[in-house]
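Retro notes, item 3 of 5
We never archived the inputs for the pyridoxal-5'-phosphate complex last cycle. Fixing that now. Sequence and ligand:
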Amino acid sequence: MTHQPALSALSATDPEIAGLVEDEARRQHDKIRLIASENYVSPAVLEATGTVLTNKYSEGYAGKRYYEGQQVVDKVETLAIERAKALFGVDHANVQPYSGSPANLAVYLAFAQPGDTILGMALPDGGHLTHGWTVSATGKWFNAVRYGVLKETGRVDLDQVRDLAREHRPKLIFAGGTAIPRTIDFPAFAEIAREVGAVLVADIAHIAGLVAGGAHPSPVGHAQVITTTTHKTLRGPRGAMILTDAEHAKAVDKAVFPGLQGGPHNHTTAAIAVALGEAARPGFRDYAHGVVANARALAEALLERGFDLVSGGTDNHLLLVDLTNKRIGGKPAAQALDRAGIELNYNTVPFDPRKPFDPSGIRLGTAAITTRGLRPEHQPRIAEWIDRTVTAAAGGDEPAVERVAAEVRELLAGYPMPGYTV
Ligand SMILES: *Cc1c(COP(=O)(O)O)cnc(C)c1O
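Structure as it came back at the time:
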């Protein structure tokens, strides 16, 4: 079993690193990967990231660069931009942000001044660090006001969003987050933003693939600015994009370069273009809807086993499970599940009485297992394995955890992993 593309030069030059890459490929092959922000990229995306494009400096934008020799890179970046515009139906795309966090920082730089008020979702309720959370630069340099979810429903409290927006008149409002299992109501956010004269930023880092594949409503036409990573459900390389209407395009471009970044990562840009090309094909719609179908099936199977899901279920790729009634913390549960071959992360749940490094919940997502070819009929088994592992961990029964790991490996042997040949 080897990494694909093969690592022949790397193995010869640096067997230590080559060995570690092979170990990681094997690990990814042997795990049911339920980390909601992860995926498996295609061999084509992997190949694009490993090209000579990494050798080139290209500060600026196509036709307006600061170094010579951009004949090819200009074409690559233009292709990525045109594909992003067509896929999402937007006026403008910037494909240079190094990742999701710098993309959001560029939006602050474009539309706010230090000390200005911004409104974002609180991290413990499902927001992202860069939406103004305390420990983030965005929370230190801006006056961040935070909304959350309703205790009874686990869903975003839009009345609170409206009240806070009216009271604080933020420059920016962020819609989106990292642990939101339900459809984001972009029209409702847009109405609030319009009323108070704020720029609405839809951060679709998690759901971009679902939006592209028609499995989640699009923020286009509601949010003036859309930020996204390219490596989560969108299934591209680690990177990000900022999509805007024509009016906000120039400010965003200036903020990314020269405001925040130097030279773009051209090998990543090429891989983003490849991923966007893949996302425009009909099979990607099947994938996106398959991700949601798998999440629904997994939610149902977990509910049947008495698991407590925040908001009672899911509309997208993501589930948030409160383990309080299973008498185990999120961290020991996540660690036991990893030993059982089920990889996910411990997570706070809204109104969590426990500490962030030892919270009450776990977060699960179905993008990677859908790419791998698992379907709704597999979800009851995964739920059973989760249940058995959590019970075993709570009772200190390590052999039971190991029995699950063996069953997981056996199932996965029938589902090849992109980037690895058996
Ligand atoms: C993942 C994520 C980001 C940040 O992406 P990085 O690439 O990890 O910097 C930003 N916003 C949201 C909502 C995310 O889920």
